[in-house]
Amino acid sequence: MKKAPSETGLPWGSRRKKWLIQGICFALFLFLFASMHHPWRSWIPYRLFLDLNPLSSLAALSGTRQFFLLGLLMIVVALVWGRIFCAYVCPLGFCIDVVDHGLARTARERPRGGLASSGLQWVLLGVVFVGVAFKNSLPLVLDPIGLLTRSLSVIFYPISIWVANSLTGLLRPLAEQRGWYELAYHAYPQPGFQAAIGNLILLALVLGLGLLTRRFWCRGLCPLGALLGLLGRVAPSRRRVTSACTTCGQCEVACPMGAIGDDPFRTKSTACIQCKSCQAVCPEDAISFSLRPRPEARYLPLPGELSRRNFFFGLGLGSMAIVLTRLDPRTVKKTDRSLRPPGALPEEDFLATCIRCGACLRICVTHTLQAAGMENGLIRWGTPVHNMRVAGCEQQCNLCGKVCPTGAIRDLPLIERQHAKVGTAVIVRETCVAWAKDRICLLCDEACPYNAIVFRPVEGHKRPFVDESRCNGCGMCEAVCPVIGEAAILVVPAGEIRQKEGSYKEALHRERIFLEPKKDLLELPERTEPLESEEGPV
User: Fold this and answer.
1) What's the pLDDT tens digit per position in 362-393?
2) Under 8 Å CB-to-CB from 507, ≥6 apart: which residues?
3) What is the DSSP letter of 262?
């Protein structure tokens, strides 16, 4: 009886080389993620992994009619070397390999096929294509690059901030005693994201599937892997097996993707990631990988699970998902106060383009951008929305548009970004201190960077009003409102300006809206990094 698949039987030299390449790529991924909180430097490719993803390019193509060159480069690589990205570059694949390596030491024998070979990845790929065709990017929450980036943004980054603040609290007595007051009274703003629980469950499911079989996610569910596998069918770089093969079966056991069946001469080209595990264990050196075809080599043209039934089932499931998400009654409720980032595309194009990667949440210097939950419908889950009660939108920052990999948030110059009106402030007179209690409160007026709060005498008292022609919906007023609970001044989407192209400044001029920033705001340099007190640990 053959042993359960395990990497422990591979030669150490082969494993070390593979793990080294994977580790370097994963370290680069983490470095680029952490660098998003640093001053923006054009020479650092912050979005490298997101831009390499052809699924991100497909989403951008659906919403903005643009296709990125790095995504095209990834397609070319797949046409030559197949799914080599999955073996060496994919950061989620590295995490899965690490978890699988740990599970292999504790778990019992795991089956090699089963549900992972049922063709679910082709169904999910069909769902993704239907979503792209009908301008619904929700299926792309399963994209591995976006999934890991989003998980780091909404789960691990807030945890790291909490740990840093806890350590600062433990060191505070010693810091006060030593006179290190900057450390003693320093605290990082604590981000919190509504979609954290959902992402944690999804990530745990992806990693935990390794209990069923190695790389279950990669071989049975991943839509990006399925796309690269289809492209890899025509790749000239393939696994070659010579007549020296004795059919000992060691290559079948070593393959983490189940790409080798009972016949070691045959290879599933859509599943092979060219990790060379089979070559490392072959006792006869009968296996090689090269670009030159050999007459001894034979291949399976397509996996048996890629059937017409699975194809149409994927199309049907995708169509049903589109209908269900768009018919959710909560998406059209009149009390919807969802505020998109400045420069966000019109809602239909935004929902088609945003892949919910969480990069904008990570780089937001005030943490006002939050991942939307289910309160406004499934189709909006995970998309960025403002929570102005947490903080206002920093007017000297335009970084969210710079890190967006699909163009769902336009990369605007600072002056254009300041004119991208996201909504209008509205005063709730029943709870406003100045209106309900006849007290003088100037906090909203002092915080407003555009002098949009004006005071007029009403019944012998000065009452605040919002001049809609000066308000761009930045939310600074809502953030500082002293009322406990919901603020007495709220920013609502009324009057928002969202467009795919063109100047926001000219659009506001046509609407007879003239934003006049305060003098001190005009004198500030463009914000390219968070304040010292807002920087999180790297």
Assistant:
1) 999 888 998 887 777 788 888 999 999 989 99
2) 419, 497, 499
3) S
